[in-house]
């Protein structure tokens, strides 16, 4: 629980036009006021993330995983203007730092999506001309548009982006929609909707085995043939241009935007990211890569068990699908004939193998990343836990969400781990991230803080009152942290015939020890508590509101003081004082 400190101010230096924002601080701190206790004030949900941290900001005394397998307990992370300034157990906080108590919080690097379609729209198809020849369509009609930029197709205000950010993703490799060669990808950060959020453009060439209806190439084999044709013609075009630029007496080469857009692939400046849905498509992509020599990323990999050796030999980048199949045998009748039982056993075996794909990649030493393409945000943690139960280590799971994709995308210098100088992208949870009790409370992306509501955990001892919480009546000791420091006090609550009544003590702003105020509007319902109280400071009456979550004899919440902002507050109920 936060104890908010007020600073003693000189009345002659107060501009009354706005007493809250024009306060001139007198020299010494007097220490301040309060923030209430037992309520684990639920962080006010702010999924909009409109509050970017532009001042120096710190979360202290948290458990911070700076990289997979590297965790620091009782640590502080300091960041400013979207960049991490320091991480560790001995971090000096500059004067004026906004501080949040992270005693019960766990901090991880923000997740990085190796291939995302969130917020990406499909471009409209061009009209077919009156003399359309289905055997020789234009590149655009055939779905060959390598010049397109996914940024022109992305809507950063799309709800899908908000949904993926809510489960921890802070950076995504956006893949364009379209035909067999859809265009160039880009890397964006899920920060402010008022920003372009672009980290890098023209990062990969998107391709897929998607033929065009009613024209060539209309089949996967036709796509392979056409891809070879485009690639080889691009090589000839690049060679012609280079010779023309260095010699005289040659015909001017014809400019072709399709072929020119392939040059970065030829030069291996960017890879081809091939979307694959099964082991056959993986083999086809690997065959093209072996023939033509481009760098390859495999997007949406499944059935890896059938092609693991080929993937390793090709040194291809693997982006594993986060989608898992359903168990189609769990509702099957047990009374089956031998043939039906054999079919069911084969389906069951294929299902169980699919759950082990991530573990197989880890065991083989393949540093894969995850892609959300084709997945649902609500299934993320469920599917990750299933993979972990089937052989994937927790460190490898976190690496596939963070540092592996940072390295795959070439952004490891500023993303993927929590280190000084890197982007302030992080996921903040209420428990270790892969445990059943873990809930995401905050996501920080590009220095913008997104707050999410958390559900109070069920009381372990089952001792709940009619409001869904353990007994509230009693004495609570609270602590709150503010930029001015930590302070605390006691909350005494009683359940009378007229509802809850109580008093709260806090540090007197006048410096006269402890002061006491009446707790008003106390509400306890559905595992949450809220109340208000008034504090006299410098001739002003300041209204303080507290709200948060109750779990057994613990309260976690926030204390708000008008324009002064809100601060974390935690409280613990003292034993042997059930009623006053």
Automatic annotation (TrEMBL):
Keyword Signal among UniProt keywords: no
Domain of life (superkingdom): Bacteria
InterPro entries per the UniProt record, alphabetical: Amidohydro-rel, Metal-dep_hydrolase_composite, Metal_Hydrolase, Metallo-dep_Hydrolase
Region named Disordered: 118-143
Alphabetical list of Pfam families matching this protein: Amidohydro_1
Entry keywords, A to Z: Coiled coil, Hydrolase
UniProt keyword Zinc present: no
Domain Amidohydrolase-related: 358-447
Coiled-coil intervals: 330-357
Gene Ontology molecular function, alphabetical: hydrolase activity, acting on carbon-nitrogen (but not peptide) bonds
Protein name: Amidohydrolase, imidazolonepropionase
Lineage: Bacteria, Pseudomonadati, Bacteroidota, Cytophagia, Cytophagales
């Amino acid at each position: 629980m936060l104890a908010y400190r007020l600073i003693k101010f000189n009345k002659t230096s107060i501009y009354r036009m706005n007493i809250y924002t024009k306060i001139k601080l007198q020299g010494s701190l007097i220490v301040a006021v309060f923030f209430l206790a037992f309520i684990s004030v639920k962080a006010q949900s702010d999924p909009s993330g409109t509050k970017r941290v532009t001042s120096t900001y710190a979360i202290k005394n948290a458990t911070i995983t700076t990289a997979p397998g590297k965790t620091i307990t009782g640590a502080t992370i300091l960041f400013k203007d979207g960049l991490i300034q320091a991480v560790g157990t001995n971090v000096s906080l500059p004067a004026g730092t906004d501080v949040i108590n992270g005693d019960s919080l766990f901090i991880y690097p923000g997740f990085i999506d190796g291939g995302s379609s969130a917020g990406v729209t499909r471009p409209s198809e061009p009209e077919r001309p009156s003399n359309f020849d289905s055997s020789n369509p234009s590149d655009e009609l055939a779905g060959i548009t390598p010049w397109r930029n996914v940024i022109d197709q992305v809507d950063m205000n799309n709800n899908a982006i908000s949904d993926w950010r809510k489960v921890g993703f802070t950076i995504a490799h956006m893949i364009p929609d379209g035909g067999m060669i859809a265009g160039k990808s880009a890397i964006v950060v899920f920060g402010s909707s008022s920003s372009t959020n672009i980290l890098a453009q023209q990062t990969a060439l998107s391709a897929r085995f998607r033929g065009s209806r009613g024209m060539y190439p209309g089949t996967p084999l036709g796509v392979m043939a056409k891809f070879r044709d485009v690639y080889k013609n691009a090589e000839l075009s690049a060679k012609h241009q280079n010779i023309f630029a260095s010699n005289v007496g040659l015909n001017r080469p014809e400019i072709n935007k399709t072929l020119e857009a392939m040059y970065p692939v030829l030069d291996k400046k960017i890879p081809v990211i091939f979307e694959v849905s099964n082991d056959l498509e993986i083999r086809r992509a690997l065959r093209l890569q072996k023939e033509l020599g481009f760098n390859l990323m495999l997007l949406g990999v499944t059935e890896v068990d059938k092609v693991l050796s080929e993937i390793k030999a090709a040194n291809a980048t693997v982006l594993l699908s986060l989608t898992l199949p359903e168990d189609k045998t769990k509702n099957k009748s047990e009374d089956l004939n031998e043939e039906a039982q054999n079919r069911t056993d084969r389906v069951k075996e294929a299902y169980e193998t699919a759950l082990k794909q991530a573990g197989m990649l880890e065991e083989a030493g393949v540093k894969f990343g995850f892609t959300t393409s084709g997945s649902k945000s609500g299934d993320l943690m469920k599917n990750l836990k299933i993979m972990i139960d089937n052989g994937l280590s927790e460190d490898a799971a976190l690496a596939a969400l963070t540092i592996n994709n940072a390295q795959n995308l070439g952004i490891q210098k500023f993303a993927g781990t929590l280190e000084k100088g890197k982007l302030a992208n992080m996921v903040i949870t209420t428990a270790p991230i892969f445990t059943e009790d873990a809930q995401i409370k905050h996501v920080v992306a590009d220095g913008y803080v997104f707050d999410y509501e958390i559900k109070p955990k069920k009381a372990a001892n089952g001792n709940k009152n009619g409001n869904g919480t353990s007994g509230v009546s009693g004495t609570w000791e609270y602590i709150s942290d503010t930029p001015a420091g930590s302070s605390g006090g006691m909350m005494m609550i009683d359940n009378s015939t007229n509802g809850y009544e109580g008093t709260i003590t806090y540090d007197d702003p006048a410096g006269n020890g402890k002061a006491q105020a009446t707790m008003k509007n106390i509400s306890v319902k559905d595992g949450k508590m809220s109340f208000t109280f008034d504090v006299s400071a410098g001739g002003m009456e300041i209204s303080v509101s507290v709200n948060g979550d109750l779990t057994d004899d613990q309260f976690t919440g926030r204390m708000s003081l008008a324009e002064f902002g809100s601060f974390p507050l935690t409280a613990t109920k003292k034993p042997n004082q059930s009623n006053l």
